[in-house]
Each structure stands twice: as structure tokens, then as C-alpha cells.
Specification:
Elements lengths: L7 E3 L2 E9 L3 H12 L4 E5 L15 E2 L3 H4 L8 H11 L6 H9 L1 H10 L4 E6 L9 E4 L5 H13 L3 E4 L2 E8 L2 E8 L5 E12 L8 H7 L18 H8 L4 E2 L4 E7 L18 E3 L13 H9 L6 E5 L4 H5 L8 H7 L3 E3 L2 H8 L3 H17 L19 E13 L2 E2 L6 E3 L5 E7 L16 H19 L3
Parallel strand pairs: 2-3, 2-10, 3-7, 10-19
Antiparallel strand pairs: 1-2, 4-6, 5-6, 8-9, 9-10, 11-17, 12-16, 13-14, 14-16, 15-16, 18-19
Helix pairs in contact: 1-6, 1-14, 3-4, 5-14
């Protein structure tokens, strides 16, 4: 964006109503909401392209959605989503924030749809999501969110500047007035905000030093699924002016990562109902419908921390010929991300696990589906047998995926200081925030959080809360 589209104070200073730092879901939804209410908004993004972690995420959105769920005979309620989110985080999440998350989830989904985003009608259970309330966008990964919100922001006059790295909050007389940043050439700029600054900079999964400080077990040997910009900038800037943090030691691993790179790599299904996990011996070793941290810990106990996701041709992604990351099964097989076998014996040979163990694991699992009870691991998500060829396997390892800790906020998305009081002019949304998910985040709740609290931050900053 050219400088002459901005409201200048001087050559290196600019004035707006609201400055948003970060251009993932949280930042874009906050900016769009503030602009919908008449504010002049500038978004600062340190990388060359917008999208943050959202654009490379699985894109799943959790929401209680009676209209869709009733057609699949799925019972659900806000109270159930609330209870599962709290329990999934070991009851360490802030109950008020958790209730807002589940209460406004469907509203956020409908806001996206109103602005042109499309979701599949089929609702499923994402890994670590516990319950079938996960919504998959039509467009691959998180691209649909970014396209939709970018288009909305531009239609509302929001200015998006890429290559501007925020370095320091401008804190004067007890109030955040703006932010100091540098462009890619190292030139310094000041962006002043009359109403306030919204931090939407994401977490710190890509900052090895920072994550090791709070959780020494997560050293540089363990890769991350995150884009390299997830370095905790907003948390550090907030702490510098006295903002409180919470839950920084809670860092989540995702078990669905590509063995060589640790990247969050597409698989043939995102639905727990269609798969089992087996280790290098061909044996199941965990309830596949468990919390994400439980599954990741179970992976880490296997040889080379590696396991195989096994599914068959009943899976809807296989039948449609396209995965939720926008890849075809043929592409994934060609690249070695997915291994195909016309028979289970062929699959076992290709992934080098004992055939007799694999067939026994699958037969026993299929019997559990018939009986509606898993005597080995207590799995309750028992819907589809693995029985229709061809069969598929995806080798996967855990990688650092999400940081539950971050800045403390209240129900209005105001950042709090060490005494629990709001810091005037400072708001936050998305993974930069701590205290919502507790010790563990349910799969599918992160995208929901970015939209729900991004919109709240945008509403609150325009109200001029102090």
C-alpha cells in the first residue's frame, strides 16, 4: 500500500483511529469489525504476505450449529461445548472467556457466511476436537478466511501495510497511543491510534528461546507447524508495558505432522470417525478421539515418535477426490505423504509393519464399531469400519503447534495489567491471548476464537473503553 493512501502527521508518522498488529484471522476480523462501526483502521503485518498461521491452518471452525447438525442426528449444545472445552483444558481456562467463545461461535460463523465465505454442510470431529461440531471451509486450508476478510477489509477502507514490523507500543500517561515499527529497509515509523491498538500477532511456537524458557522440554530439536513469524512479538511488547500473562507453560503438540519437516501436512481425512492410529508394530496405542495433548504424548512414546494414520475408501475426502488442504489423493501419494495399498497386506508391506498385527488391530477395531464399545482404549467415536479397499496410511509425528499462554484479557478483549486492571487503549485477540483454552486446546476451537474475540476487540476499541 502506498503511503499517500494514509493519513500523515509527518513523513514518518501516521494517524488512524485504530491500529491492528497482525493480519491473520484475529487481526482481519478485528479490523473489519472496527471499520464496520465507522473507524479508520490500519493493519500492520511484519511479513511480506498477510494470513499469519490462519492461511496454513487446517481451517476447521467449531460451533454448535443446530441447522447442520440435526440432519446428521448429532446432539449438541453450547453447554456441552462449554463443558468439553473447560475439561479439555484441565479446568484451567477462564470460564467467562470460554462461555463467550462457545456462545458467540455460531454468530461468528454466520458473519463469515454473510460476507461470502462458504462451508461444507457435513459436520465432523477434527482430531482432538472431542465432538462432531467441526466445520470445514469449501476452500483449502485457511485460504477462505483470509480471502473473505481481506475483501471485506478493503471494501470498508481498511489499510493493510505489509513488511512493517511492530517493535514497541507507544505508552503515554497510562494509555497506549500507538506503535513504533520498522519497514523492510529498517526505516522507523510511528503509527498513532486515537481509539486504541489491537494486538493480533499470534503465539510463540516459532520462538525456540521463548518456548524453552517456559517449557524446557520443547527445545530446537522439536519442529513447529507454525509460520516463522510466530515469535511472540505482541506478548513481549505487552509485557514491556506491564501487561500480565497467563498459562505460558502450556504448549500444544500436534500429532498430525510430516516426519521430515514437522509441517502440518494434509491427510486424506480430517475426521476422527474414519481412522485409527497404529505404531511401527502395527498396533493401536491410544483412543483416536482423545484430546490432542493425550494423542501427542502417546505418539511420543512410540518408536521414533512415529505412527500411521490408517483409513479406507469410505472416507468422504477420498470419495470427493480432494482433501481439506486442496490436494488430491493422487498428488499426496505421488509425493509420499500418503501410502496406498489395494489390500491391507500390501499396505502393511509398504509401511513395513507386521501384517498379522495390522490385520488384528483393524479386525478388533471393526468389532468395536459393531458392538459400539472399544474394550482396548474406551474410544466412543465409533462410526465407520475400516474395510473398503483401497486402504491408506499417513506417517505422522508430533510438532509444536499452539501456545495456550499469552496476554491476560477480560471479556471485552482489553489487555490487563498485573493488578487485573485494563491497560487503556490496548486490546488483544487470537493466539496472543492466554487463559481461554487452559492447559490444552480442543482441535477446531482456535479458528473460532480468532473470529469471536477478533470481533469483540473490534467492537470494544470503537466504544473507547478505558
Amino acid at each position: 500500500m502506498e503511503d499517500d493512501t494514509l493519513k500523515k502527521k509527518t513523513e514518518d508518522q501516521y494517524l488512524s483511529d485504530v491500529v491492528v498488529i497482525g493480519s491473520g484471522n484475529a487481526g482481519l476480523s478485528a479490523a473489519a469489525t472496527a471499520a464496520e462501526k465507522g473507524a479508520y483502521v490500519i493493519i500492520l503485518e511484519k511479513r511480506k504476505n498477510i494470513g499469519g498461521n490462519t492461511i496454513i491452518s487446517g481451517g476447521v471452525y467449531n460451533a454448535v450449529d443446530p441447522k447442520r447438525q440435526q440432519y446428521q442426528n448429532i446432539f449438541d449444545s453450547k453447554e456441552l461445548h462449554f463443558g468439553q472445552t473447560l475439561k479439555g483444558g484441565d479446568f484451567k481456562g477462564d470460564q467467562e472467556l470460554v462461555w463467550i467463545l462457545v456462545d458467540r461461535a455460531l454468530e461468528g460463523l454466520q458473519w463469515l457466511e454473510k460476507n461470502g465465505m462458504k462451508f461444507q454442510e457435513h459436520v465432523f470431529t477434527i482430531v482432538g476436537g472431542i465432538w462432531p461440531r467441526s466445520h470445514q471451509p469449501i476452500e483449502p486450508a485457511g485460504t477462505g478466511y483470509i480471502k473473505t476478510l481481506k475483501r471485506l477489509c478493503f471494501s470498508l477502507g481498511v489499510r493493510i501495510l505489509t513488511g512493517y514490523r511492530a517493535e514497541k507500543l507507544l505508552y503515554r500517561k497510562g494509555r497506549v497511543m500507538g506503535v513504533r515499527c520498522r519497514d523492510l529497509q529498517g526505516k522507523e515509523f510511528l503509527f498513532w491510534a486515537k481509539k486504541g491498538v489491537i494486538l493480533a500477532t499470534g503465539g510463540f511456537s516459532a520462538n525456540v528461546q521463548m518456548r524453552s524458557r517456559y517449557n524446557p522440554l520443547l527445545n530446537d530439536i522439536i519442529p513447529t507447524t507454525n509460520q516463522p513469524g510466530a515469535t511472540g512479538d505482541g506478548i513481549l511488547m505487552g509485557m514491556e508495558i506491564g501487561a500480565a500473562v497467563t498459562g505460558m507453560e502450556y504448549i500444544q503438540l500436534n500429532p498430525y505432522c510430516e516426519p521430515k519437516t514437522g509441517r502440518l501436512q494434509t491427510i486424506l481425512t480430517g475426521a476422527v470417525e474414519h481412522l485409527i492410529y497404529v505404531n511401527n508394530e502395527g498396533n493401536r496405542f491410544v483412543d483416536e478421539g482423545e484430546r490432542r495433548d493425550v494423542i501427542a504424548d502417546a505418539f511420543l512414546r512410540q518408536k521414533n515418535a512415529t505412527a500411521y494414520l490408517i483409513n479406507d475408501s469410505q472416507d468422504e475426502f477420498v470419495q470427493k477426490g480432494i482433501t481439506h488442504f486442496g490436494k488430491t489423493p493422487e498428488e499426496l501419494i505421488k509425493k509420499g505423504h500418503v501410502i496406498k495399498g489395494d489390500t491391507l497386506e500390501e499396505l502393511a508391506n509398504k509401511i513395513r509393519v507386521p501384517f498379522e498385527n495390522l490385520i488384528r488391530s483393524i479386525e478388533k477395531y471393526n468389532k468395536s464399531v459393531e458392538l459400539g464399545y472399544d474394550s482396548d482404549f474406551g474410544r466412543t467415536l465409533l462410526k465407520y469400519k475400516i474395510e473398503r479397499p483401497p486402504f491408506y496410511a499417513c506417517p505422522r509425528v508430533p510438532a509444536v503447534h499452539y501456545t495456550m499462554g499469552g496476554l491476560k484479557i477480560n471479556t471485552k478483549a482489553q489487555v490487563l495489567d498485573g493488578k487485573g486492571k485494563p491497560i487503556s487503549g490496548l486490546f488483544a485477540a487470537g493466539e496472543v491471548v492466554g487463559g481461554i483454552h487452559g492447559a490444552n486446546r480442543l482441535g477446531g476451537n482456535a479458528i473460532t476464537e480468532t473470529i469471536v474475540f477478533g470481533r469483540i476487540a473490534g467492537e470494544s476499541v470503537v466504544r473507547g473503553l478505558d
